Amino acid sequence: MKLFSWLRPAALTLTVAQQQRLDQLPSAPTLGECSLREQRWVVVDLETTGLNLNKDVVLSIGAVVIEDGAIDFSQQFEQTLQRGNHKLGPSVLLHGLGPSAIAAGSDPRDALLDFMEFVGDSPLLAFHAPFDQHMLGRALKDSLGYRLQHPFLDVADMAPLLCPQANIREAGLDDWINWFKLQVFERHNASADAMATAELVLILFNRARMQQIHSPLNLQQRLSQWKRRQQSHSF
């Protein structure tokens, strides 16, 4: 045994078909100068066993596509991941994914490959994106050895940036849904939350264009500037 070889993680066990699918995933995109309308966006939401970034795991993935300035109802994604050895915490009371639903879920490797094929070379949007980005990135690394490098924009930052008059920073998704008076009939499962977030995004993209933010790259730059200002004001 080589020195410290026991410290290395066990080799990932992918089938030939899974490895082929992994090898064929497109390269991560960079945000460009096309219009917000022309860009294909994937709005994602995750349900997890809890909020611990290092111990909890992804239970389900819901996503919807925004393309040509509208939600494309023909492009939706929803999968529950099979998890055999993870205890369910209080979060099950919100998302409703009980043991039977999780036991009937998909092999995490196949589910994650399905999702990344659905994403393709599109950037991602999520409400409180750092959490989803971290959890999804860790799931992809642990299950597939895949490094997530797709741009991930935070709708929770976009909203106060583009609508400062709302004066509801640190707000949750429900706060913004209520502020815009959106009619959302279902919440707290991955696909429903992704759809609610996508409806909010459409309003925010319209506000962005009114403020001369016309491209994905420009939006990313303005978000970065806004976050730096917020951080400087907090000291």
From TrEMBL:
Membrane spanning residue stretches: none
A molecular-function term among this protein's GO annotations: 3'-5' exonuclease activity
Keywords: Exonuclease, Hydrolase, Nuclease
Pfam family for this entry, one: RNase_T
Sequence ranges assigned to domain Exonuclease in this UniProt record: 40-210
GO biological process: DNA metabolic process
Keyword Cytoplasm carried by entry: no
Keyword Nuclease included in the entry's annotation: yes
SMART domains found in the cross-reference section: EXOIII (SM00479)
UniProt cross-references to PANTHER family, sorted A to Z: DNA POLYMERASE III SUBUNIT EPSILON (PTHR30231), PROTEIN NEN2 (PTHR30231:SF4)
Protein name per Swiss-Prot or TrEMBL: DNA polymerase III subunit epsilon
Lineage: Bacteria, Pseudomonadati, Pseudomonadota, Gammaproteobacteria, Pseudomonadales
